[in-house]
Amino acid sequence: MARFELVFKRSIAKDIRALEPIDVRRILQRIEKLAVDPRPKDSEKLSGQERYRVRQGSLRILYEIDDSQLVVTVVKIGHWRDVYR
Hints:
By secondary structure, the protein is of the alpha+beta class.
């Protein structure tokens, strides 16, 4: 299986600055795994959107997959209460 390129929206920097350092490390490790397998077992497609989400504790990573270009675009990172707004 080919490795996907990871792309981050500009707003991700702001999302990451709001997190604790231990959470940042875990989130980045989780995102790195998406480059190898963008649809892991625990990922879920969001209804009504072309986005997926994976959980990392109480945090969520929202991302889009472009299979034709082999790109995973990380759209939003945040607490589960706020990330879907």
